[in-house]
Design a protein that fits this description.
About 20% of the residues lie in helices and about 30% in strands. The chain is an alpha+beta fold. The strands form eleven sheets. A six-stranded antiparallel beta sheet has the order 1-2-3-4-6-5, with helices on one face. Strands 11-42-41-40 form a four-stranded antiparallel beta sheet, with no helix packed on it. It has a four-stranded antiparallel beta sheet with strand order 12-13-14-15, with no helix packed on it. α1 crosses α3, α3 packs antiparallel against α5 and α3 packs antiparallel against α8.
């Protein structure tokens, strides 16, 4: 996907004129470029701040050498390079086609013939690399491009030459956890057999849509890679044997690349590649070919002049008359459909007081109201609101906090974020009941953190199962996922907390992750229970709706997803909202797409990420989320039409995993420089509070926004 050049990107690199950004990573930025004679190429340029690092220059040279070795048949042919330039660069063929993970999202898992053709070609390419004593070390779906003539292996940024001094030290795991070999995960030497292991995992993903070791946190993945058996579910039986051998824990038990080529080609892996690709993938290849010859997006304008720290000068906004002229009939359509977002947008005149467009005074960021020292968990960590105060995970406990003073009030011995929930009044938890080791649902005393008497005791379920999960509590009903004491079967169930008994249960697939529950999250909307789980562990979410009354599954759908798995669901009476490559509204009634936003927009620079639209937030009929690195976008929840886009934001990397928080006057969003407040009238940032926080929680009733850093949580006014 093409995105605009930054204002400070160079005009040319060597003899190549830069047209657009293709993406970027830890070492460099990749540009679409063209020669004076019309040849289109991809140019990778080392980041300026890394150019003085001798070791990284050597790694860049090795990347160039590896790309030359694999050549144009199995990779992107090298046209030119200059490792001695002020900023080293490498120019290769522009490969016309999507990465393999995008291809799977477009057309679904590949059929057996396509997987064999893919595997045979990739094994042959790796063999060519290995014969030159180079190993790739980071073979994964995003590093394999799917073209009409065959797959291409790209990105040799962490490749290394056999027999040469390592550019990374033994004892450190370098690569992508989901596709690492066991020896690589242990920080040991990753030789040619390690690339075969990664190829096996990649082909499992191509055949099934999921990786062989699930998803989740890097530490969990590394453990499973080293100590557990791969998940070959969904792999055609005729491929399971050879892919299982590729994924053998010991390198000596894996086939060589020559053996793989012979096996896969013998089974039909020599068919013309385009003949075995799904139509949706062929259409995506054609679309990307067309994109090359479209007018490139205009270069971004320079940022406004510097202003004092923590302030941004707010200029005059667009008048109501001008806004109506810009959106034309879209506003009327939204009004007819009852879209509350349109009226929220038009609710205030964004002209400066007095109507003359005078400059607004600088706004200073607020001071902390209090700070509570606490360790934030690696995932989850939202602050829970109750009628008595706050509750938040802090290290290995759940801690109570006074919302006025920020002082700790109690601690409960709970460490897994999926084992508690709040209904806005009380905190509920799952625990093992002392009598009979049954599963119990109880409350936590808001004064001392002790567990109350069980509200419900579920004797059929194992209280000692650490992955039992409390999804939500609504109107005296608890919805949870639990494992039975006998038979080890998993169920989604509803529990009546007033009567202390189970209302219904619905079977769910067993948890393939030995450390995480089967579900990710759940929410109730009217008479529907919406649940979400990691269908493939890596690139798909399974969404389902059950009837609150009897638990019957009304529908289930798989949703392509590239961001961090959601920890909470955003729903209203009509839709479930998700942000990823587009902002999606999926109908709760039947699981169909209500609307898509962003498929035809230039979302700005992706910063090397597939996810363009961030985790959404919903308020008063408007869905808010980040759009690339352009800023926050507000979209009508009913129609999917744009209400407004943040103005004047440049030079920031937005946090797409944390949904914004919306107050009455400001919207709050995280980026690489801190917490940004965006004026809801002018749609411009008015201040930034420096922080590296990764969790935001709103408390509208108390007028607070809670900001969680790794070792502290603090409160700011919610205005």
């Amino acid at each position: 996907m093409l995105s605009a050049l930054f204002h400070d990107d160079p005009q040319t690199v060597g003899p190549y004129r830069l047209l657009a950004r293709l993406g970027g990573g830890g070492m460099g930025t990749v540009y679409l470029a063209r020669t004076a004679g019309g040849r289109t190429v991809a140019v990778k340029v080392l980041h300026e701040h890394l150019a003085s690092d001798t070791a990284l220059r050597s790694r860049f040279q090795l990347e160039t050498d590896a790309a030359r070795v694999i050549g144009g048949r199995f990779g992107a042919a090298v046209h030119d390079a200059d490792a001695l330039a002020v900023r080293p660069w490498l120019a290769t063929d522009y490969v016309i086609g999507p990465p393999l993970d995008d291809a799977i999202r477009a057309g679904g898992p590949l059929g057996g013939s396509a997987v064999r053709a893919l595997g045979a070609a990739l094994a042959e390419g790796l063999g060519q690399l290995h014969r030159s004593e180079v190993v790739h070390r980071d073979l994964k779906p995003s590093n394999v491009m799917v073209t009409a003539t065959g797959p291409k292996i790209i990105d040799f940024g962490i490749a290394w030459a056999v027999g040469e001094e390592r550019l990374t030290h033994v004892g450190s795991a370098v690569g992508t956890p989901a596709f690492m070999s066991p020896e690589q995960a242990a920080g040991a030497e990753h030789a040619a057999a390690g690339d075969v292991f990664a190829l096996g995992g990649l082909l499992v993903f191509a055949a099934s849509g999921h990786g062989p070791f699930g998803g989740g946190q890097a530490a969990d993945l590394l453990y499973r890679v080293r100590y557990t058996e791969p998940d070959l579910g969904g792999v055609p039986p005729e491929l399971a044997g050879v892919l299982g051998r590729c994924l053998a824990n010991h390198p000596a038990d894996r086939p060589t690349t020559d053996e793989l080529v012979a096996t896969l080609a013998a089974d039909g892996g020599r068919q013309p590649f385009a003949d075995v690709l799904p139509d949706a993938v062929l259409r995506e290849i054609a679309r990307r070919g067309d994109d090359v010859w479209q007018q490139p997006p205009p270069r971004q304008t320079p940022p406004p002049p510097e202003v004092p720290p923590d302030t941004v000068v707010v200029g005059p906004g667009v008048s109501r008359r001008r806004m109506l002229a810009l959106v034309g009939g879209g506003v009327a359509a939204g009004a007819v459909l009852g879209g509350g977002g349109v009226w929220a947008w038009l609710g205030g005149d964004d002209r400066a007081p007095g109507g003359g467009g005078a400059e607004a005074k600088p706004v200073k960021a607020p001071s902390r109201l209090w700070t509570f020292p606490s360790r934030r968990p690696d995932d989850g960590g939202d602050v829970l609101l109750t009628s008595h105060g706050l509750a938040m995970p802090a290290g290995i406990v759940l801690a109570g906090v006074n919302p006025e003073s920020g002082e700790g009030t109690w601690q409960a011995n709970l460490s897994d974020t999926w084992r508690w929930a709040t209904d806005g009044t009380k905190v509920y938890a799952l625990r093992e009941h002392d009598e009979g080791a049954a599963l119990a649902v109880c409350t936590i005393d808001p004064t001392d953190g002790r567990f109350g008497k069980p509200l419900a005791e579920l004797k059929d379920f194992a209280g000692g199962e650490a992955r039992n999960q409390l999804l939500c509590v609504v109107e005296d009903s608890a919805y949870l996922v639990a494992r039975t004491s006998s038979g080890s079967r998993w169920y989604l169930l509803a529990v009546d907390l007033r009567r202390g008994r189970e209302r219904w249960r619905s079977p769910v697939d067993a948890a393939h992750d030995t450390y995480r529950p089967p579900m990710l999250c759940g929410a109730v909307s009217g008479q529907r229970l919406v649940v979400c789980r990691a269908d493939s562990g890596i690139h798909f979410l399974e969404l389902a709706v059950h009837a609150v009354a009897d638990g019957k599954k009304r529908w289930a759908q798989s949703e392509p997803f590239t961001g961090s798995p959601p920890g909470r669901l955003v729903v209203d009476g009509r839709h479930l909202y998700l942000g990823d490559e587009a902002l999606t509204a999926r109908r709760l009634s039947d699981g169909g797409i209500g609307w898509l936003f962003g498929t035809d927009r230039n979302a700005g620079d992706s910063a090397g990420k597939s996810r363009l639209y961030g985790a959404p937030a919903l308020r008063d009929g408007v869905v808010y989320c980040t759009e690339g690195d352009r800023g926050v976008v507000a979209v009508d929840a009913v129609t999917g039409s744009i209400n407004w886009l943040e103005k004047g934001l440049t030079g920031r990397r937005l946090n797409r995993e944390v949904p914004p928080v919306i107050g009455k006057k400001y919207l709050y969003s995280l980026d690489d420089k801190g917490l940004r407040a965006v004026d809801l009238r002018t749609h411009r940032a008015v201040w930034t509070f420096p922080t590296d926080a990764t969790v935001l929680s709103a408390d509208p009733g108390r007028g607070r926004v809670y900001v969680r850093e790794e070792r502290a949580t603090f409160a700011l006014p919610l205005v």
